[in-house]
């Protein structure tokens, strides 16, 4: 039982950052599927909640801080922002919220969703729903592979 709790904590912590790989230790060490899926989804949900709500706060703080300054536009930042906007336009609000935890690392995807969709009330609910759907699918894939 002690080994299971250590593995589940590692799955939880791995789920907070690298959601795609978080179910691999559970599959390799033969932890029950439901425990692996639950630990992975819980870690990703906690990370996305912190990132989504703190991301909105940080963006508001940065906006207020930069009010009196001349903006500096870095070329790499502009190119990356254009790519994100293209993905957003291609898959839409619901698709972006559901897939942001798989496309990007969980905190980064939640911050991007906070930046793009902070005024929509259902954004965080869709992110959480996407995390749980993807946790079931990714855990199933990892258990089939191993």
Helix content: over 70%
- Write the element-wise H/E pattern from the N-terminal end onward: HHHHHH
Q: How many domain regions? A: 1
Integer average pLDDT: 87
Shape: elongated
Q: Report the C-alpha radius of gyration, rounded.
A: 17 Å
Strand portion: under 5%
**Sheet bearing the most strands, described?**
none
- Report the structural category: mainly alpha
Number of strands: 0
Distance between the terminal alpha carbons, to the nearest Å?
22 Å
The helix count comes to 6
Poorly predicted tracts of residues: none
Strand and helix layout:
Blueprint: H1 2-17, H2 24-28, H3 33-65, H4 75-103, H5 106-117, H6 123-145
Can you give a write-up of this model?
The protein has one domain. The model has no long low-confidence stretch (mean pLDDT 87). It is mostly helical and 146 residues long. Helix 3 crosses helix 5 and helix 4 packs across helix 5.
Top keywords for this entry?
single chain; mainly alpha; 146 residues; 6 helices
In short:
This protein has 146 residues and is mainly alpha-helical. The protein is built from 6 helices and no strands.
């Amino acid at each position: 039982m002690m080994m299971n709790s250590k593995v589940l904590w590692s799955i939880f912590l791995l789920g907070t950052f690298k959601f795609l790989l978080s179910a691999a230790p559970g599959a390799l060490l033969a932890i029950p599927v439901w425990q692996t899926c639950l630990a992975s989804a819980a870690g990703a949900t906690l990370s996305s909640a912190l990132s989504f709500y703190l991301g909105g706060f940080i963006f508001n703080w940065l906006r207020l801080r930069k009010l009196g300054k001349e903006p500096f536009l870095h070329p790499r930042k502009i190119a990356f922002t254009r790519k994100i906007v293209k993905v957003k336009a291609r898959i839409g609000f619901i698709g972006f919220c559901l897939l942001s935890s798989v496309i990007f690392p969980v905190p980064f995807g939640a911050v991007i969703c906070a930046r793009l969709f902070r005024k929509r009330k259902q954004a965080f609910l869709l992110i959480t729903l996407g995390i749980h759907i993807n946790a079931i699918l990714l855990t199933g894939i990892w258990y089939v592979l191993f």
